[in-house]
């Protein structure tokens, strides 16, 4: 049985921006998470 994980990219970026992170940096910080989730839950 595989667990389902939801990752809301926009919500993550918006939260970073609310905490004072510049938008460009917030978007850049999302990319490693996306790669992690893709490698973890998308079969190759």
Question: What topology emerges from the helices and strands here?
Answer:
Layout lengths: L8 H10 L4 H19 L3
Helix pairs in contact: 1-2
Question: If you had to describe this structure to a student in words, what would you say it looks like?
Answer:
With 44 residues, the chain is mainly alpha-helical. The chain is 66% helix and 0% strand. It contains 2 helices and no strands. It has helices at 9-18, 23-41. The longest helix has 19 residues, at 23-41. The protein starts with 8 loop residues before the first helix and ends with a helix. 0% of the residues are buried. The model has no long low-confidence stretch (mean pLDDT 81).
* SS summary, helix count: 2
Helix content: 55-70%
**Biggest sheet details:** none
Residue stretches low in confidence (pLDDT < 50, at least 5 long) are none
Give the overall shape, derived from the CA principal axes: flat
**Radius of gyration, in angstroms, nearest whole number:** 12 Å
Strand content: under 5%
Q: What's the overall average pLDDT, rounded?
A: 81
Give a count of the beta strands, DSSP E runs of length 2 or more: 0
Helix/sheet category: mainly alpha
Which H/E pattern describes the elements? HH
């Amino acid at each position: 049985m595989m667990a389902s994980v939801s990752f809301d990219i926009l919500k993550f970026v918006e939260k970073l921006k609310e905490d004072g992170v510049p938008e460009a940096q917030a978007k850049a910080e999302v990319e490693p998470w996306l790669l992690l989730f893709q490698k973890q839950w998308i079969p190759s």
